[in-house]
Write a structure and sequence with these properties.
The termini are far apart. The protein is mainly alpha-helical and about 190 residues long. The chain is globular. The protein has one domain. The longest helix has about 30 residues, at about 140-170. The chain contains six helices and no strands. It has helices spanning about 1-30, 40-50, 55-70, 80-95, 105-130, 140-170. It is about 70% helix and about 0% strand.
Length: about 190
């Protein structure tokens, strides 16, 4: 029975990754220019690290990063390394500094993760450019796109996290089980 549950969980995570890739590719392909900079993979990564900061989350992030690499025209390993460093730094920060999970902390973690991801991406791209002469254009349009990515991904993260916390707090079954008690836990007396 345990093996069956592990297989079902693996299939669920596999379809979740495929769904995330489909959403990410469709947003990048079909939305108009400012909105196509939303990074769904980073949104899911930060959301996963905020809700469950475990080692399994990092393995899930590596799987997502490997999927990113298959659709990228960049040299292999640049996006994967930047994604992993950003995820690892985010998990360490969440476990050691930001232990509260409020909306403001989630927004700050989202901004921090995207900045670390883009910094590592450009750093690894410059290292690659040092060994192989590739074209790296750091112009104002690229900085503008990174700014839009930070704003839109963080806004999406705040929206999805607030939906999850609303569903987690308001839709708990604890409210249903309070039959003969008032809100303070005292037994109700019927006159």
């Amino acid at each position: 029975m345990k093996i069956f549950l592990k297989v079902i969980k693996f299939i669920f995570y596999f379809f979740l990754i495929i769904l995330a890739a489909a959403i990410h590719l469709s947003i990048n392909s079909f939305l108009p220019p400012p909105f196509n900079n939303t990074n769904i993979f980073l949104l899911i990564a930060v959301l996963l690290l905020v809700t469950k900061p475990t080692g399994k989350s990092l393995l899930f992030l590596l799987t997502i990063a490997l999927l990113i690499e298959t659709y990228s025209a960049l040299p292999f390993g640049i996006l994967l390394s930047a994604f992993f460093v950003a995820g690892l730094t985010t998990q360490w920060t969440l476990l050691n500094f930001f232990t509260d999970r409020s909306i403001f902390i989630v927004a700050l973690i989202g901004i921090m993760t995207i900045i670390i991801y883009r910094f590592c991406f450009f750093l690894f791209w410059l290292i690659y450019n040092f060994f192989v002469k590739a074209n790296l254009n750091l112009n104002i349009e690229l900085i503008k796109n990174v700014g839009w990515e930070i704003i839109l991904t963080t806004a999406g993260l705040i929206f999805v996290y607030s939906l999850i916390t609303f569903a987690g707090k308001k839709l708990r079954p604890e409210y249903i089980h309070m039959k003969n008690q008032d809100i303070y836990g005292r037994k109700k007396t019927f006159i």
